[in-house]
Amino acid sequence: MKTKIAGAAALLATILFAMACNNAPQSASDAVLENILTRTSIRQYTDEPVSDAQIETLLRAGMAAPSARNLQPWSFVVVTDSTVRASLVTKGVNKMYAEAPCIIVVCGETTMMRKPHDAPEDAEPQEVPNGNWSVDCSAVTENILLAAHSLGLGAVWTACWPYEDRYAPVKELLGIPEKVMPLAIIPVGHPAEDPAPKDKWKPERIHYGRW
Ligand SMILES: Cc1cc2nc3c(=O)[nH]c(=O)nc-3n(C[C@H](O)[C@H](O)[C@H](O)COP(=O)(O)O)c2cc1C
Fold first, then answer.
1. 198 lines ligand 1 (CB under 6 A)
2. Which of 3, 11, 35, 41 to mutate to test the pocket of ligand 1 (most atoms within 8 A of CB)?
3. What is the mean pLDDT of each run of 10 residues along the chain (211 residues)?
4. How many other CB atoms are there within 10 angstroms of residue 125's CB atom?
5. What's the total number of domains in the chain?
6. Cβ(72) to ligand 1 under 6 A?
7. pTM
8. 152 with 171, same domain?
9. Is the CB of 163 under 6 A from ligand 1?
10. How far apart are CA 183 and CA 162, in angstroms?
11. Residue 22 sits in which domain range?
């Protein structure tokens, strides 16, 4: 309890500090900052479904993410069907996938078409590994988590890639193509728990000018 109160107090201090630095009155940017600072992983959900409109909002937020060379190498599998979600669990994947009313599987294209370096103008593009796919899809995943929080939903990032025992059954069950990799699975639902956001502010991690 003490830790929760201390955490909440530290968080409030961070928000107030951020607002004070920004001299501006309560504004949309304050709301964005507060949303970022108060997001926390939610792992318990009520039975209430997530609406189609909410799911679309989450996906729009995901697809607004930055990506290297603006390749947008992402795709999504949205699963609300309880039988499919239960099958994932029987295949040894996280039990939250059955408990949340919706899961969003964030997938990345692991290859891209590109002309080789020093290739002539008229060279055909070739399929090469896209070294940035997981970074790009991580930005997507965080955007979705933040959007879920702003809608009053609860969500958590659960790892899929790089663990073969997690991604192999997911790929098989959901029919994900060979060169596409599920990076993260986000269970989303209406929160059935209210954990305090963690205070992660560690000034000692910052080096100004030089390490
Ligand atoms: C790459 C990554 C993988 C994660 N995998 C899992 C997971 O498999 N299961 C889980 O319950 N949480 C997972 N998490 C959530 C973290 O445990 C959580 O973000 C961390 O404890 C910080 O808590 P917070 O999200 O409430 O700030 C993952 C987070 C990240 C970024």
1. yes
2. 41
3. 60 57 64 96 98 98 98 98 92 87 98 86 91 98 98 97 95 97 98 97 98 98
4. 11
5. 2
6. no
7. 0.89
8. yes
9. no
10. 7
11. 1-38
Mutate to test the pocket of ligand 1, among 88, 136, 156 (most ligand atoms within 8 A of CB): 156
Residue 96 belongs to a domain: yes
Instruction: Assess whether the C-beta atom of 4 lies below 6 angstroms from ligand 1.
Output: no
3-state secondary structure of 10: helix
Clarify whether residues 34 and 49 are in a common domain. no
* Structural domain includes residue 203: no
Tokens of 129: 């590994």
The owner of tokens 């990799």 is 181
Looking at the structure, tell me whether residues 28 and 71 fall in a common domain.
no
Other CB atoms within 10 Å distance of the CB of residue 19: 17
Does residue 157 have its Cβ closer than 6 Å to ligand 1? yes
